[in-house]
Structure formats: structure tokens, C-alpha cells
Design goal:
six-stranded mixed beta sheet, three-stranded antiparallel beta sheet, 5 helices, disordered N terminus
């Protein structure tokens, strides 16, 4: 939430602010691949993009999956893909693979704010790394609590579908706890 034209409040309940650069913010709208994110989330991202551009901020769209990061290009240009950062195969659930790719990509880029849904735990390694002080100190993380794995299962009256659901749930909870 904007507190004034020169700073952005990082937490709705606190007075901690981050000064805005004179040329506007570099904002990343990150979302999981299309199979995970729904129509409501796509609508929210489109609204955030429109408002941010109207306010003079630079916006990058990216989609993360276990295969890597796809950076969505401006109209008329080809999408680019951030390749797998390590040659060996990553071990663990798909959600952890995507989160690791997000961390590696964000370490190479510089964003003032990264906005992503908590579903799939995309920001897990990024917020954990920042919390431990290793990287991304100047990046604020905005997390949207939407489509959480075990909540969705509960509302559908389903049991968790295995260990991957439990791992994803823990990643989502950690993202929510460590985000700004």
C-alpha cells in the first residue's frame, strides 16, 4: 500500500517503508505455470500490471515451472526462457524444482518487488535466502494467499495426495510467514 508518493509500506501493520527510486519500481509479477494458476489469479495479475504501469513502474511477467522460468515478452516479441541453472537433475518434488529456479533467476535479476501467489511455494527458497541474509536483501516479496494446497484439498473434502502435498503445504506456509 502506498504511504505517500515517495515510499511504499512493506507491511500493512507496520511503519517500515522502502523508498521509491526516482524512475519507479522494477516489479516482477511471478506466477506458476498455467496448470496451477487459475483464472482469478490471471485477472489479479492483469490488474496489478495495469495499475503499476499507470503509476510509471517497470513490470516483468514470469511463469515458473520445474523446467525453468519463462519471461513473458511485451506484445509482439518472443518469450525468453531462463534455462536450468545446474546441469544435473534436481531431486525432490516439482514445487521445490520451480522454487529453486525462481531463486537462481532472482539472484541474477534485480527487482524492487516480486509479487507471486503462495500456491506451489514459488518464493520458498527466495524468501528463505533473504531471511538468512544471503541474498535479495533489497527485494520486497508480496505474496497472495490464494489456492493453498491443503486448504484446497480440505474445501474439496479430499485427503492430501501424498508427501508432495505435505511438502508443498510447508513451502506455502513458510512463504507466507517470511514475505513482506
Amino acid at each position: 500500500a502506498l504511504t505517500d508518493r515517495n515510499a511504499i509500506r512493506l507491511d500493512f501493520g507496520s511503519t517500515r517503508t522502502m523508498p521509491l527510486p526516482p524512475s519507479g519500481l522494477r516489479l516482477c509479477l511471478l506466477q506458476p505455470d498455467a496448470s496451477v494458476s487459475g483464472e482469478a489469479h490471471a485477472s489479479l495479475v492483469a490488474t496489478l500490471h495495469r495499475i503499476a504501469v499507470q503509476e510509471g513502474h517497470h513490470v516483468i511477467h514470469a511463469a515458473a515451472s520445474e523446467a525453468g522460468i519463462r519471461i513473458r515478452a511485451a506484445d509482439g516479441e518472443a518469450d525468453t526462457t531462463f534455462p536450468e541453472p545446474l546441469p544435473q537433475r534436481l531431486v525432490g518434488p516439482d514445487a521445490a524444482h520451480a522454487a529453486y529456479h525462481v531463486l537462481e533467476w532472482l539472484r541474477l535479476e534485480r527487482f524492487d518487488i516480486v509479487c507471486a501467489p503462495a500456491c506451489a511455494g514459488l518464493l520458498f527458497y527466495a524468501v528463505s535466502t533473504r531471511h538468512q541474509g544471503f541474498a535479495l536483501r533489497d527485494t520486497a516479496f508480496c505474496t497472495i494467499a490464494d489456492g493453498l494446497t491443503l486448504l484446497s484439498r480440505h474445501l474439496s473434502q479430499e485427503m492430501p495426495r501424498g508427501m508432495d502435498d505435505l511438502v508443498r503445504d510447508e513451502m506455502e506456509r513458510r512463504v507466507l510467514a517470511l514475505s513482506d
